[in-house]
Amino acid sequence: MTRRTSLWFIAAGASTGAVLASLVAAAPVSAHTGHPINGLGDGLVHPLFGPDHLLAMVAVGVVAALVTNRRIAWLVPAGFLAGMVLGGLAGLAGVSFPGLEVAVAASVVALGLLVTGLARVTDVWLPALALLFGAAHGLAHGGELPAGAAPFAYVGGFVLATAALHAVGMLGGSQLRARPGVRAAVGAALAAAGVGLLALA
What we know:
Helices cover 74% and strands 0% of the residues. The chain has helices spanning 3-26, 40-45, 51-66, 70-92, 100-116, 126-142, 151-174, 180-200.
């Protein structure tokens, strides 16, 4: 595939991401609140109603599928999950920091660039990067514990949902390894959506 064709795919993907970002902007700003208050169930649906969480968690799976070292590949989602548990527990304990929503949105941009291949990180560092991203997402989750929900059931719910989204991303990402143009478009769409989320953060 020529460089010109690859750039066309990236532009198409970025356009798709811009459309997605506009749809996100049209959605209620309180996308992280108002879920059913039942602990495990609330944790399960929480990542599905936050577009930043949903995109990042699927993207982590895609990145894992694209890692050439297969042993490290499995450590990418594992790192994200570990970071999310730690961040979630910290959030439940009341830990927070300014700019958390910016960090969460920025993780979507970074993951999108990793998918395109425009951003390169040595494979051995990807699990650590995923852990940091997971910690930011987990902190946001933990800080949004609904009143009356069982904390550990809630954490268990969003961990299970995240693992499922990672699996979806890995299945999709496995189809991108031999399709560089489509990979570039998907990554560009993710990065563009992340830029849109940054504008809302």
